Structure formats: structure tokens, C-alpha cells
Amino acid sequence: MVEFSIWDIFRNLLLAGRWTVVLSLTAFIGGGMVGLLVLVGRLWSTRAAPGAQKVARIASAALDGYILLFQGTPLLMQLFLAYFGLALFGINVPAWVAAAVALTLYTSAYLAEIWRGCVDAIPKGQWEAAQSLAMSFGEQLRHIVLPQALRIAVPPTVGFLVQVIKGTALASVIGFIELTKAGTVIANATFKPFLVYSCVALMYFALCFPVSLYARRLERKLKNGR
Amino acid sequence: MDAKVASDKILVEINQLRKSFGSNEVLKGIDLDVKTGEVIAIIGKSGSGKSTLLRCINGLEVFQSGTLRVDGKHLLHNNPQVMRELRQHVGMIFQSFNLFPHLTVGKNIMLAPTLVKKTASAEVEAHARTLLQRVGLAEKFDAWPDQLSGGQQQRVAIARALAMQPSVLLCDEITSALDPELVGEVLQVVESLASDGMTLLMVTHEMNFARKVCDRVVFMHQGRVHETGAPDQVFSNPQTPELKQFLGMNQ
Amino acid sequence: MKIELDFLAVLSQWPLLAIGVAWTVGLTVISSLIGVTLGVAFAWARASGPVWLRWVVGTYVELIRNTPFIVQLFFIFFGLPAMGVKLSPELASVIAMVINLSAYATEIIRAGVEATPRGQIEAAESLAFNRVQIYTRVVLPPAFKKVWPALVSQIIIVMLGSAVCGQISTQELSYAANLIQGRNFRAFEAFIIATFIYLALSIGVRKLLNWLGPKFLFGR
């Protein structure tokens, strides 16, 4: 039987860990962009469009449904659906594409909801002052509301990155070779599951804990005012 | 009161205005005409609908029935272009100032003219400085709102509204949130605006100020215009028991 | 290109799905009861226990919150046997869910507990309540009321996270969906139906818990 050293195990996990980082960043940045669109769409349909407009009501319901779908169903199912759903259209997607798509949309829904909370925290008077100065909805959003909401949004957004990193672990189930999948493979190859999974856990911890601490620091800074 | 010519042109025309919040009718048929250059004080108890009426005039509140015309044009809430046009002619000052905290004083004043009227930046800045001078805060151009006192913030808010060169200014209890010693500096600015011929609609509790500066006082009670007239009449010779009671409370 | 979807092939297997739902709900109920109870205990430890205990609980909380649930599950199911502790898939799932939920519940409940106004505790002390009574009768009920939405959300997150337990052959809903699609190759349909069942579960469980909390835990 081949003997594997701890260093062998560690090194292989590290190599796979690169893909965890890549997938996390892809989903986080992509999700941020999509999430921003979802946010603006929701704000437009609830605040800008005159209440009775049918388009606004449909858009509002659709976007609410989008958020409900991603927050109310398991990420694992979303990954499966991306993997098998895209396959339905004849496109044979590699696991990393399905994972990237699913995680991006998942992130976009959560970020849009977090950011909506931040926008709701902006006092109504700010909106009204901007409206009274004849600014259009787009101008109100861009120059008055979003700059203020951005400040409040940074800590919870950074905090959500931790969820994204943990979420990438599920991509292992559809075959994407990231840290968890490598751990499973190596655990089976070395017959040392206790050691291997401990290493895997510690590596996730090394990735997530600093981010968690940073998010908490940002939150404290915000509470204590500039 | 300084001599000024209030023209006969009707700037704001309100006819049988009704507004409800859900099942609660707050404005029960308001009739009011405001001439160019008129300074009108709207007084009454909390809940009489004073602020709601003001907010209907610039479209912050949507009314259910009646007509409201500013400068001859009807308010069309569903038409963003019309509302944008309206709000360039109607300015509003709020009780809680609502300055933009992430912009300096100067930028607060310059933002709307730059975006909406698309004026060149040098012109906008010069105009902003002039307005700031007018409200007595010329040296605060680069200050941040949270560095200013309440009275100073409100004066900046006035300059900000004036930057759009409105034909009528709506003042919604603009001194109610101020410490007493800061009220005077704001009222001074308003008085100078009045004597320069600005059309003003003020919801206010400052009875002495209303008496001194306003052309007309409108007393609102339970969603209706209950009594109206020149300040001397209304304050010295109230006709209705509700107004008598209101003034009794406030003397 | 025509895509043929056959939902009936999946829906005809409804007994399997029903068993899956039963397991998912069962796992969630058990781990919620134990997890929240532990959360209450650990929250107390973190808020008012001796320094060493606070540190131990704190470390445990940070470890769990900064590692993925699937890794925790694999560690318990695959890793522990190497140390001589062999567990059934179901037991491993419950233990993993309990450990996971209680870490989050600790922080959530601690936030509620620490927000208790000083005056409440002082009033209770002057009424000669002992420490346990103060904690359970004066501090916890308002704390629970305050953090209930966050706690309910976390329970739902754990319920949705239990989908991963199917990977170690626990017969919950995602396992059932996988089983069905393995038989009739209707992967997309199976997972879509399972997804909507999960959605219905999360909405339903949220409503149920929002009714249960005020009724039994903190009144009004």
C-alpha cells in the first residue's frame, strides 16, 4: 500500500482549493452584477412606476418570485437543476459551468435582498427631497439613494462572501473538482478520512474566518460612525 | 409689511380637492387660489391635513378627486415628464431639512440644476455661491451637512430649493424641528424671500411671523378650510369657535 | 428542438417522495428541538459563563459557522469511523444538523439575551428569583420573541441544507428524487418537483413556526 504523507494530502487539497477560490469569486462578482439588476428592477417596480401600471406589478411579482425561489429551496437542488436543466437543451455542460451559473444566480438573489434592506434603511425624506428637486427616478437612485445605501451595504455583503465560499462545497456533488471533492477522492485513496476531512475543514476555515472577522470589523466601524 | 405688488395671476388653483389614506379621508374638499407673490400661512391642529395639502401641490401625495393646477397646468401623477416639469416650478422645504449627507453644502445646492436643468457647471457653481450668500452662509460652501447647526442646515435647504428658481415655495413646518434660538435666522431668510416677491405657502406654528409677513392666513380644521382672511382679521377677530379655541391654545 | 418533459413518471413515484418529505421534516424537527435547546444553553454560557467556557463555546461556534455543512457531515459520517465511532446515516445526519444549528442558534439567541434591559434583571433579582429562573422566565421569553424571525430563518436554512444528507444515503427528499431519476432518467423533472416541494415546505414551516412561537414560547 502506498503511504501518503500529510504534506502530500495537504498539497493536493491546496491545489484543488484554487478552484474553490475561483468559483467563489466568479459567483460573488457575477452574482453582484445580476443582483444589482434585480435590485434596480424591484425598486423601479415598487417605487417609481405609478402604482396601477400592469408592467410594474408583473415585474414586481416576478422579481419577488425569483428571490423566493432561491432563498426557499436548497442550493443543492439549484445545482442539480442547472446541471440537468442545461443538459436538457442538448448542451452538455461541464460541472464547473453549471456550478458557476447556479451559484451566481443564488448569490444574486441573496445580495439583491440584502441590498434592498439597505435601501429601505434610507429615510423617506431623502427620496422626497430628491423628488421635490425634480430629479427622475434614475437620478434619485444614482445620486442620492444608492451612494448612501452602499455605505450600509458593505458589511453584510462582505459577510455573504462567507456563504458563497461554503456554497462552493456543494459543487462537489455534481462533480466539480474543488476542495471538498478533492477531499472525498483523497480520503478514499488514502483511507484516512478523519485526517483528510479535518484538513478540508481547516482549509475552509482559513478561507472563511478572516472574511468573517473583516465583515464584523466593517460592521463595528459603521456602527461607531465614520 | 414692505410694499410689493402681488399680481392678479393665479399661480396655484385648487378645486374641491379630496385625499384619503385608505379609508381615512384627510382632505375633504379644499378650495384655494394662490396669486403670484402671495404669502400664505396655513395653520391648524395636527391632523387637520395641512401638510398633506402642501404635499399634494408638488405631487408627493396623490389625491383622489378634485383638480389642482399650477401655473395653469394640471397635475398628472402618472406622467413623469409632467411631474418633473412641475417640480421645477414648485420647491419644497421640509421640517427635517433632508439635506443629502454624502454631499457637501455646495454640491447639495448644485446637484439638481446640473442634472435637471443641465446648466453648465461654472454657471451652477456661481449661482450656488450667490444663493448661499443670500441665506448668510457664504463661507460654508465646502462644509458637510453634519457640521452645521439645524438652523444652518435649514437655510442651506432653502438655498437648495431656490437653485431651481421655482415660482412657488412650499414650507412644511420648517422651523418646528429647530431649537428656539435658531428659528429666527431661518425666518429672517423667509421674510426676505417674501419681500422679494416669492410666492410662499407656509404650514407653520409661528403665529407672530405669520401675522407680520403673510398676506393671508388659512385656518384648516378636520380636512377643510375652516376660516381664511388677512392676518389682522384672523388673529384679532376669529369668527369660528374652532379658530378661537386654536388661537387660545397658542397664545 | 423539442424538449420532452414527463412529470407523470416522477409523480407516479409519489410514495417515495412522501417518505422523503417525512424524513426531511423529521430530521428538521428533531435537530431543531435539540439544536435550539443547546443554543439556549450555549448562549447562556457565552453571555454569562466563566471565561474559559466562553472561549470554548466561541471556538466551537466559529468553527461551525466558517466551514460548509457538507464537510461537517462527511467528517462525522466518514471521518469518525476511523476513530472507532461508527454511525448510521440517519444518526450522522441528525448529529451534523444539531451541531450545525446549535452553533448558529447560540449566536442568534445570545443577541436576544444580551439585549435584555438591565432593569428587567434587577427587578427579577429583587424579587428573589434565582439565576436559572431569571434566565428562563425573565430573559428568554422576550429574547425569543425578538430573535424569532432570525431563528425561524436559520431552522429553514438547516432544513434546506439537509438535502445534502441524501449524499450519505439518508432517505430524505433529495435522496428520493435521486432514486427516482436513477430509475426513469427523468432527472430534470424529478429535481424540479423536489425543488417545489422544498419551496412549499419552507413556506409552510415558516408559517407554522411563526404561529407556534407566539402560542407556546413567548405569548402574544
Q: What is the share of helical residues of chain A? A: over 70%
Principal-axis shape of chain A equals elongated
The CATH class name of chain A reads Mainly Alpha
Annotated CATH topology of chain A: MetI-like fold
Question: Structural class of the helix and strand makeup of chain B?
Answer: alpha/beta
Tally of separate helices of chain A: 8
Give a verbal description of the structure.
- The complex is a heterotrimer of chains A (226), B (251) and C (220).
- In chain A, helix 1 packs across helix 4 and helix 7 (179-190) packs antiparallel against helix 8.
- The longest helix of chain A is centred in the N-terminal third of the chain and has 43 residues, at 6-48.
- Helices cover 82% and strands 0% of the residues of chain A.
- By secondary structure, chain A is mainly alpha-helical.
- Helix content of chain B is 39%, strand content 25%.
- Chain B contains 9 helices and 10 strands.
- Chain B starts with 9 loop residues before the first strand and ends with a helix.
- In chain B, helix 6 (180-195) links the parallel strand 7 and strand 8 (199-203).
- The longest helix of chain B is centred in the C-terminal third of the chain and has 16 residues, at 180-195.
- With 251 residues, chain B is α/β, with parallel strands linked by helices.
- With 220 residues, chain C is mainly alpha-helical.
- In chain C, helix 5 crosses helix 7 (131-161).
- Chain C has one domain (7-218): MetI-like fold (Orthogonal Bundle), CATH 1.10.3720.
- Chain A binds chain B through residues 50, 52-53, 123, 125-126, 128-137, 139, 143-144, 147-148, 151, and chain B through 58-60, 77-78, 80, 84-88, 90-92, 94, 96, 98-102, 111-112, 115-116, 157, 160-161, 164.
What would you say about this model in short?
The complex is a heterotrimer of chains A (226), B (251) and C (220). With 226 residues, chain A is mainly alpha-helical.
